[in-house]
Description:
Layout: H1 3-21, H2 30-37, H3 41-48, H4 56-65, H5 72-83, E1 86-88, H6 89-92, H7 97-109, E2 113-118, H8 129-143, H9 149-159, E3 169-175, H10 177-180, H11 186-199, E4 205-210, E5 224-227, E6 231-235, E7 239-243, H12 246-260, H13 266-279
Parallel strand pairs: 2-3, 3-4
Antiparallel strand pairs: 1-7, 2-5, 5-6, 6-7
Helix pairs in contact: 1-5, 2-3, 4-5, 7-9, 8-9, 11-13
Amino acid sequence: MSTDYQQARAALGARLRELRFTCPGGRLTGQQLAQRLGWPGSKVSKLENGRQTATPEDLRAWADATEQPGVYAELAARLAGFESHIRSWRRALANGFKPMHEGLSAEIDRTSDIWIWEESVIAGLMQTPEYAHHVIQRYSELLGGASDIEDAVRARVQRQEWLYRPGRTLHVLMWEAALRSLICPPSVLATQLDRLTGMLGMDTLELGIVPFATPVKIVPANGFWILDDRLVVAEDWHAELWLDDADSIALYAKVWKTLRESAVYGTEAHDIINSARRALNPR
């Protein structure tokens, strides 16, 4: 968990403790508040000490139990302010995949240029529906809970309309591993690679491939998107990170440019894609 995130969570905890101390009916002990809420005392302690992230429902209950319901809006704003940066997959998927896809789609809609790095999967804006289905299904199996896979696939495919709007440019770098990873059946990957080949001539797309055999100046890991130099969306196993501070954006831009130095384009990229495609049907 990032230092900034933990500090923000601890600050929210301190504010919750302050509300407990200043209850209009008299200062409450942690145990007294827990009894009012019907919670174990350990939950009150964890929230106040920044060792557990509150939900909006927790915050509303806390405000009511400390007889200060008017502070809920402030508490919710604090939560939104820091949780917008790190979005736990498990918590987000409690509402299914589709809302998550729609949230990112809203950001993409107001973006003119996107820079993407993917080390092991085809970039979402270039995925076929069948390939997308298998990728999303794998995440569902790992994280559990979400069953709206087809809705999520439709949302992802609809997002690709962005590529056909005037004034949009997609800059994609992919490691060769993304072309060969069998996250799906070989026939599905073959169709996906055929689509990549067909997209190479698009004037809204710049596609670079980092070959296995090419020296790299940085470890090719951690897929991420940069939207208009204003937002970075990066994925890890536990969460999706939304970073909008200038230092983080500059760092990810530097990583992208460093990886680009090892990439090939045009005919060379086409040859690598075709080589991966032929490997699926060896003679």
